[in-house]
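I had to read the description of the data format several times before I understood it. In essence, backbone conformation is discretised, so a fold becomes a row of integers matching the chain in length. I therefore recommend that a typical entry be quoted early in the introduction. For illustration, here is how one protein appears when written out as sequence plus structure tokens.

***
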Amino acid sequence: MKLPKFVQVHQRFEAPVVEDIGITTEAEVARMIDQAGMSSGASVAVAAGSRGIMHIATIIKHTVDALHNEGMKPFIVPAMGSHGGATSDGQLRVLNNYGISEATMSCPIRSDIEPELIGETGDGLPVYIDRNALSADHIVIVNRIKPHTDFAGDIGSGLMKMMAIGLGKQKGASFYHGSVFEYGFEHMITTVSAVVMKKTPVAFGLAIIENAYDQTAHIVGVPVDGLEQKERELFQLANRLMPRLPFEDIDVLIVDEMGKNISGTGMDTNIIGRRMQDFEPEPVSPQILRIVVRGLTPESEGNAVGVGLADFTTQRLVNQINHHYTYINSITGMGPQKARIPVYFDTDREVIEAAFSTIGMKAPESGRAVRIKNTLHLGEVAISETLMDEIADRDDLEVRASLSPLPFDHSGTLVALS
């Protein structure tokens, strides 16, 4: 099959950057400690999640250091719902994969998958919380704020979601995801987190916002009083700074890798324009006819939730799947459809040719195609020859190389996108 030639382009995005992660983190934590009136000698549970947040180990470490500097006794708790196979050891392993261990953080890490019931929402939904966090004098929530992959709204992933689903462990996450069929995601997150803030010693949150190049753009301490309103404001900023594909109408999108460290759904649904979430509308754009995903990141530990968002994949990715981890996560999230295995072939070449053979009457070499490393890194992408005419007058795209065929090696594997 004659495939289109591709050219690598650089996307220019608005991209503020925090120059010194450690200094900024400690300054914001110190500000929050003072504002919350936290005292020396107090125990503090620092909630850390499973997302692939840039510099997360550094941010958690300096949060712990700032607490130590004030004479407090910090420890870390995993706040990741059902991830890590919904086991205490599995969640410790997820944190360790991000460089968060007792040795690197200089404090204990206490992982217990069984939560405590602390009350219920006005809708009668039980509210659960990590039992180790509940035992502390204070709780500090550390998480990135960004649009959610399962719903569109005025909030998304962030501090409130970590309080509800992350600290609720597998038991809480399962109840909450089930409730969205009745009440919707935003209502669930705000009502559950409100109970958590009222019934537990949450002192403050540390909000992280990233720019389109996966760099830390802002680190902001958020007091528990007024947290919901502040998170809504930060959400608007995070939404503005998100990366996007360079075109809205694409025949074939080639994604080199997916994974839980990339997005909760393996591929960010806001980027690919597919949500596949019951009772939630599909995004209006982008419109992508076929999606090919080639591999699963090692950090995912075989959790391939989100592979069902693709149309085609490889035998290599299928061999990487830990079905137990994938099924637990997809069932807890009430999204078994996202764990479906797409059409797959032995080699990248076969998979990509199959995708291009299903774009209708259009010749494959004329296809509108984009290739990306993953949905988190969109600064450098490759576009097909047909799209070259559309970038001439765009100052947000810069051509970095000349047109060339897709670089397959002798085994039919696509060479990594530089």
